[in-house]
Amino acid sequence: MSAVLTQVGAINAARAEIKATAAAVLALKGDMIEVEAVANVMLTYRHLEDASMRLGKVLQALDGGVSVYDKRTTVGA
Prior knowledge:
71% helix
């Protein structure tokens, strides 16, 4: 297995973990009414979204810099 495929697998695994963590963080919001607590939960969630997106950018760079949105198979592209 090439090093790039190993890296891609590790990146996808990390993104899956981030997705699960983000869902758990969002669930913490639940019935919170304290404004600052809700704001910080949402900020945490947004940071996790950003981390996942940035790992997606790593995948894009490993794929020669081609965005998934540039591919003819992408819906809406």
